Description:
Number of strands: 5
CATH topology of the largest domain: DNA Cyclobutane Dipyrimidine Photolyase, subunit A, domain 3
Order of helices and strands: EHEHEHEHEHHHHHHHHHHHHHHHH
Shape: globular
Largest sheet: 5 strands, parallel
Structural class: mainly alpha
Number of domains: 3
CATH class of the largest domain: Mainly Alpha
Strand order of the largest sheet: 3-2-1-4-5
CATH architecture of the largest domain: Orthogonal Bundle
CATH superfamily of the largest domain: DNA Cyclobutane Dipyrimidine Photolyase, subunit A, domain 3
Number of helices: 20
Bound molecules: flavin-adenine dinucleotide
Radius of gyration: 23 Å
Distance between the termini: 61 Å
Amino acid sequence: APTIMWFRDDLRLMDNPALCDAAARGPVICLYIHDPAFPLGGAEKWWLHGALTALDHDLGACGGRLWIMAGDSRENLSWLVGQTGAEAVVWNRRYGPHARQVDADIKAALKARGIDACSHPGNMLHEPWQVRTKQGTPFRVFTPWWRAVQAMGAPLPPLPAPVRTTFAPVPPAVADRLVAVPDLALLPVRTDWAGGLRGQWQPGEAAAHARLDSFVAEQVHGYATRRELPAQPATSGLSPYLRFGHVSARQIWHAVDATGQGDQDTACFLSEVGWRDFAQSTLFDFPDLGTTNLRSEFNSMPWRHDPAALRAWQAGKTGYPIIDAGMRELWHTGWMHNRVRMIVASFLTKHLLTDWRAGAAWFADTLVDADAASNPFNWQWVAGCGLDAAPYFRIFNPVSQGEKFDPAGEYVRKWVPEIARLPDKYIHAPWKAGSVAPAGYPPPIVDLAGGRARALAAWKSL
Ligand code: FAD
């Protein structure tokens, strides 16, 4: 009898614990269920189209294929088990509250039918419950948590792709219910906004490893100092590959460790990968992370409702070049540099006094790496209401941040071409340029000093 390998956020063949388990048991059914209960943003959908196509191709090269179904996960799995006589269903864990509920329901339903249901470690260095304080409680601060992770030593060594896997044939009744990737309608329809994404990204496991290899061979040198400069291609660009599980955090850890470099660059990079694990753990321990302030005093924050300002922020038309460059990079490529993510998030939640959830929702729709843990975790961090958060009174000034991290204005000139000809001294404050200020670029939508004072007053009212 076959085993169903249920793929979710782990679209890879290498270092896939559940796939290895399935392959060792006998014939395998490789399944993906496109379930509307797990809604995706536009950029994620675009990515998923490429990701499923690549996985199907990779499975084809081993003599298999990806079975794709659409609809409720519980119903589809239950029906498929009946049709195929599968004796086991295996998967790698995910940590969001709804995902865990669905997995628990399915496990219980399968066990009641005498079918084995087996879950395996998800895409983290260690499972969330393995890293605990001495009292057995979740850590709330990153540094001691990261120290505890490091004290645990190396994460599990990555598994190779299973060799000589046999694949179960598709029964005729099942064939009628399987769909092809294009049937999922994941690509933009009326307006093709995805040209920039196509130009920048290649979803799939092969592309993930090409990127990891070149990062480890070249860019990791100098990462600790260059990672803050958005004009430099200094970071790995691995975030969407991690989001969709084309590469595992364990593979990244071991690839970096194998360099034997062990200096501040590799340490800094691995601690960033650690922040991702910390965000996943936070989602596991605080399931409301995506919707609720982790610090409840923020529940009475007098957020402003200003649709015009929100639209200007989304469109990259705030009149602050570093903000507008970041928001346009996001729209065009589905990604934004981390330093700039922090600056635009601070601007929205502080100068514009807008609820972080509005920003997180926009990011969720436009990021190719939109992640149910990292996205709200970082928004709450910037807004001051999260775990180990930046204090609310730390308000980034977009002009001085631009001058510090994009001193020659290279990043701004790339994404905000209408001001590209301004001299360096005005590139982050075009309104000061007087007669040489270019027409067509908006004046600032908020006064920085006024916005800052308003934000601090709101925060003090809590
Ligand atoms: P690198 O610098 O190469 O880092 C390597 C990996 O470490 C990344 O791929 C990522 O998985 C992880 N990482 C790095 N920084 C962080 C961080 N602060 N938090 C969590 N993981 C991190 N990252 C997402 O993956 N998905 C999101 O939805 C997301 N939303 C964010 C929202 C805001 C407001 C902010 C400030 C940050 C957000 N980040 C998010 C974190 C970070 O900006 C991206 O992970 C990073 O820019 C990805 O680029 P990279 O792969 O080149 O990073």
